[in-house]
Design brief:
Elements (H helix, E strand, L loop, with lengths): L17 H8 L6 H9 L8 H10 L5 H4 L4 H4 L7 H19 L11 H12 L6 E7 L5 E9 L9 H10 L4 E7 L9 H17 L2 E8 L4 E3 L7
Parallel strand pairs: 3-4
Antiparallel strand pairs: 1-2, 1-3, 4-5
């Protein structure tokens, strides 16, 4: 059977082209055949890349594990699949297999002010100037990342609310912990610290991003707004 009406993928509606669909709707929107079509790029004189990919998948009952076991020579038996395309398919499936074997690194979880301090103390404990950082958390209070927001002088630094929440939104954070250091070693929060914490806490509520704590880090310890019931 010929598929002459489907040969040129560029003639399809843009949302039906595998590459464009991947870019616009994300990888999860593509079928297995469409993903393989991206790998091989083109079909043969009677089939589009997608139709050829469907036929390859049909030969293994749509089982990707079985497809991964097919030799390069067997793949080359499909009209339109040369050595380069066969190797591309085999390489992609081998990467998928290796990915399954790799354990995802376990994310650190913040369960207390002490565990939050442990996540940030290495960058804030011994500085001779002030810096402001945030710890970014998911809904399970696992650490997504930590980001430096600003660097200042001996007696202060600026914490821009717009920048803080832009970083949090970009990382899809559900919660953040504010952190800054006092080079003097005095852990008592200033009036500016208290005002900033209240401001950021209120702003977070409007964005559905919880400000879970604010830590002031010194050379030998820390002060937690949450522990002290200030937050």
């Amino acid at each position: 059977m010929a598929y002459k009406g489907n040969l040129n993928i560029k003639s399809w509606a843009e949302e039906d082209r595998p590459r464009e669909k991947f870019a616009q709707k994300g990888k999860s929107s593509l079928s297995d055949a469409e993903l393989i079509a991206i790998l091989i790029g083109s079909g043969n004189k009677n089939e589009s890349a997608v139709e050829l990919s469907k036929r390859i998948l049909n030969s293994v009952n749509h089982n990707l594990n079985e497809l991964g076991r097919i030799s390069i020579e067997n793949l080359k038996e499909f009209n339109g699949i040369g050595e380069a395309k066969a190797i591309s398919i085999a390489a992609a499936l081998e990467l998928g297999r290796r990915r399954k074997e790799v354990d995802s690194p376990k994310k650190a979880k913040v369960t207390s002010s002490k565990s939050a301090y442990d996540q940030i103390s290495d960058v804030l404990s011994d500085l001779d100037h002030e810096e402001f950082w945030i710890i970014l958390l998911n809904r399970a209070n696992e650490v997504i990342d930590r980001k430096n927001i600003s660097k200042g002088g001996v007696s202060g630094t600026v914490a821009d609310a717009k920048l803080i929440f832009k970083v949090a939104l970009d990382k899809l954070s559900s919660g953040i912990i504010l952190c800054h250091n006092h080079p003097s070693g005095n852990l008592k929060p200033s009036q500016a610290d208290l005002k900033l914490t209240r401001k950021l806490s209120e702003a977070g509520k409007n964005l559905d991003i919880s400000v879970l704590d604010h830590l002031i880090i010194g050379n030998k310890g820390y002060f937690s707004f949450s522990d002290e019931g200030i937050l």
